[in-house]
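Onboarding guide, step 5: your first structure request.
Type a short instruction followed by the sequence, for example:

Predict the 3D structure of this protein.
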Amino acid sequence: MSDTIDGFATPAGTARYMQRSVSAGRPAAHFKSFDGLRLSSLGMGTYLGDITKEDDEAMENSVYESVKSGAINVIDTAINYRAMKSERSIGRALSRLIKENIVSRDHVFISTKNGYITNDGDMPNIDVMEYLQRMYISAGVISADDISSGYNILNPAYISKCIDKSLANMGLSCIDLVYVHNAFESWHADVSKSRFMEMLAKVFEVYEQYRKAGKLRYYGMATWTCFRVPKESREYLSLEAAVKAAESVGGKNHGFKFIQLPYNLAYSEALFTKSQSVGSEGNLNILEAAARLGIGIFTSVPLFQGRLLRAPIPDYCGLTDQLSKIVQVIRSSPSVIAPLIGQKSAEHLSENLKLADMPPLTEEQFHQAVQTLAHRQKSG
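The system replies with structure tokens like these:
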């Protein structure tokens, strides 16, 4: 396709984006450094919304304004979000930003996810199961047995088709990061852990092939429970085991560099559940394990889909407004690059972007905040 956007986020490009932001008065500490990239410590999520033209336009404009503001150069989506329409909104926004010379492709880090079944929102009369039957089962790409009880597919042929579709949906030649989406959560009831790890390695093999072809830079695991439950839980997965699976197919220079998990003031297991081990070192939380393994973390549901906006939260570190109190401690946690915040309305967008005018907490402030919040939880 002639209007495909070439390139990917680079150290030089993201540094230029950061420099422009700092020149406009934002703190340099708003950007985190990971593998040479300068990534904003707030990212935009694109999960919520209806499959309507109005929501298409609202999301496109929100991505456009977020990136244009100089505050956000991390955009996160998934092929199944709004039945592919979120990816298409991102593609249109990015195309506008580049055509108007506001940014270049190397300024912006874009992640998507695959594995879940999805239909196509541009074919509104075809539901998910009919879409799967037409596009994948009848075509011999997958069989019905490839679908887990959690509606997830790890068949390598399906994963390949999803990456190709995501590239087309966003009009990109290369995606910065692709996650396998809630894979263990969707499969642990159906297969043994050892069988799952074999399936995961096959998915990683696909990702490594796409890296070699220049269509993908990094890959990872977007998760819900597996990295924040106790070791004895059936839903538990070792991050180190996942990294070893990547090493087994990609060698030491494999592309498995990121995970995503829920982390907010209600879901604080990332900080307090010490169930991970790396080498001989045990009793680590997922943030510590990720640091040892060179893995960056993006976090989901920072506002707990709005519920935390109504929760009683004590003031800490001089913060008194609710949004800052919710987000600052998450954004400042070790190993966390950015919480991903959904924003479509102009009002929410301007509120969220104000957070970028504040630096994350210092290490000392972070520990002080955790003590204040943990004390409140115990006494509450």
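Each response can be followed by summary notes, for example: The mean pLDDT is 96.
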